[in-house]
C-alpha cells in the first residue's frame, strides 16, 4: 500500500508526504503551524485542493463519511448517547458486521486498551483518559487504512499519558495501515514514529526519519524539541548539545571560537542537571545544561549576565534545507 499526499488549504497549508504500510508519521511543529489543518483535510473536515492518494484512490475526492479513516482528536468526538461498547462497535456495525460479532470485537478492543470494564458506560461517565482510550479503540476497531491521531495524549495527566503511550506504540507497531500522529512531544515523535513531518508556518520544513530529524534538525523549533541548539551560518546549520556548552560569568580566555555574552532567562530541572535558557546579547536563545553545584557556585539565576562557549569539535555542521 502507498500513501502519497500533496495538498493545499488556501492561506493555511501547503504540504506533501509519502508513506507506506505500517508507517507512523509524527507531525510536529509550533502552535498554528498547520498540523491539525493537515489531519482535518485528510479526514474531510476541512476543504483541500490537490491529492491524498491511498492505494491509488484520491481521498480528497471522496466524501468524508466514505473515507474510512480512523480519527482520534484531542476534543474527541464519542457519540454521547452511546455506551463505550456501542461507540467502538459503531464502525464495524456500519460496515454490516452482525451485532453480536461487532459487540464482541468492541469489547475485545476495549480490553486491549485496558477499559473493558467500562464497556457499559456512556462518555459523560468516563474520565478524560478513559474516554481517550475508548476513542482509540473505536478508531482501531473500524480497521481503517489511515489512522489520524491529533494529540491523543494531550490534556491527560502524566501517568495516564505514559501508560497510554506504551499501549498506543504497541498497537501502532502491529497496525498495517498508515498513521499520522500530531504531537508536541519529542519522545512520541522520536520513539513511536517511523517518519517525522515538521510543519512550520503552513509548509513542510523537514520530512525524514527520527534519526535524521534529531541529528540534523531543520528549524529552531525542531532543534528545541529534540533538545539541541541550532544556529545558522550562511547556508549551514550548526547544531550542538546543551551539555557541550560551557557557562562562565566572565569572558572565557580559552580557545573556543564560539562564544556569546547573554543573560540567563530561565532555569529548570532537567534530569540530574539544570537547564539554562540564555538570551544572548545579539543572537538567539541558547540552552545550556549545568550541574546544580556549578549553578550554585556561579549564582546562575534568571537575570545573571553570563558567557556561553562551545568548542568547535562539539558542533555538527550540515546544509540547511532550501527555503
Ligand atoms: N477554521 C479556520 N479558519 C481559518 N483559519 C483557521 C481555522 N482553523 C485554523 N486556522 C488557522 O490555520 C493555521 C493553522 O492552524 P492549525 O490548527 O492547523 O495549527 P496547529 O499546527 O494544529 O496548531 P496547534 O499546535 O496550536 O494546535 C493557523 O494560522 C490558524 O489560525
UniProtKB/TrEMBL annotation:
Residues 1-226 form the ABC transporter domain. Residues 253-319 form the Mop domain. SUPFAM superfamilies: MOP-like (SSF50331), P-loop containing nucleoside triphosphate hydrolases (SSF52540). GO terms for molecular function: ATP binding; ATP hydrolysis activity. One of its GO terms (biological process) is molybdate ion transport. Pfam families: ABC_tran (PF00005), TOBE (PF03459). Keywords: ATP-binding, Molybdenum, Nucleotide-binding, Transport. The keyword Nucleotide-binding applies. InterPro entries: AAA+_ATPase, ABC_SmlMolc_Importer, ABC_transporter-like_ATP-bd, ABC_transporter-like_CS, Mo/tungstate-bd_C_term_dom, Mop_domain, P-loop_NTPase, Transp-assoc_OB_typ1. This is ABC transporter ATP-binding protein. It comes from Nocardioides donggukensis. The lineage of its organism: Bacteria, Bacillati, Actinomycetota, Actinomycetes, Propionibacteriales.
Amino acid at each position: 500500500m502507498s500513501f502519497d499526499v500533496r495538498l493545499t488549504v488556501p492561506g493555511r497549508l501547503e504540504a506533501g508526504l509519502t508513506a507506506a504500510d505500517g508507517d507512523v508519521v509524527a507531525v510536529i511543529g509550533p502552535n498554528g503551524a498547520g498540523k491539525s489543518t493537515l489531519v482535518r483535510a485528510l479526514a474531510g473536515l476541512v476543504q483541500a485542493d490537490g491529492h491524498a492518494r491511498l492505494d491509488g484512490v484520491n481521498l480528497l475526492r471522496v466524501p468524508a463519511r466514505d473515507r474510512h479513516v480512523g480519527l482520534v482528536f484531542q476534543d474527541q468526538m464519542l457519540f454521547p448517547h452511546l455506551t463505550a461498547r456501542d461507540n467502538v462497535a459503531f464502525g464495524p456495525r456500519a460496515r454490516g458486521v452482525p451485532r453480536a460479532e461487532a459487540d464482541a470485537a468492541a469489547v475485545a478492543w476495549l480490553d486491549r486498551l485496558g477499559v473493558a470494564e467500562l464497556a457499559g458506560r456512556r462518555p459523560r461517565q468516563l474520565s478524560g483518559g478513559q474516554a481517550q482510550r475508548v476513542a482509540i479503540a473505536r478508531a482501531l476497531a473500524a480497521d481503517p487504512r489511515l489512522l489520524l491521531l491529533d494529540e491523543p495524549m494531550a490534556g491527560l495527566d502524566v501517568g495516564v499519558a505514559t501508560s497510554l503511550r506504551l499501549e498506543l506504540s504497541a498497537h501502532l507497531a502491529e497496525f498495517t495501515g498508515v498513521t499520522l500522529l500530531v504531537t508536541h512531544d519529542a519522545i512520541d515523535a522520536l520513539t513511536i514514529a517511523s517518519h517525522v513531518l515538521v510543519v512550520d508556518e503552513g509548509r513542510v520544513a523537514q520530512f525524514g526519519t527520527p534519526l535524521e530529524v534529531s541529528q540534523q534538525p531543520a528549524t529552531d523549533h525542531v532543534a528545541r524539541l529534540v533538545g539541541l541548539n541550532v544556529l545558522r551560518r550562511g547556508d549551514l546549520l550548526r547544531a550542538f548539545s546543551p551539555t557541550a556548552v560551557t557557562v562562565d560569568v566572565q569572558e572565557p580566555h580559552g580557545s573556543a571560537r564560539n562564544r556569546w555574552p547573554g543573560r540567563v532567562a530561565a532555569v529548570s530541572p532537567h534530569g540530574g542537571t539544570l537547564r539554562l535558557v540564555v538570551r544572548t546579547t545579539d543572537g538567539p536563545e541558547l540552552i545550556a545544561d549545568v550541574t546544580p553545584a556549578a549553578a550554585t557556585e556561579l549564582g546562575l539565576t534568571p537575570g545573571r549576565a553570563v558567557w556561553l562557549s562551545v568548542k568547535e569539535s562539539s558542533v555538527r555542521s550540515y546544509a540547511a534545507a532550501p527555503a
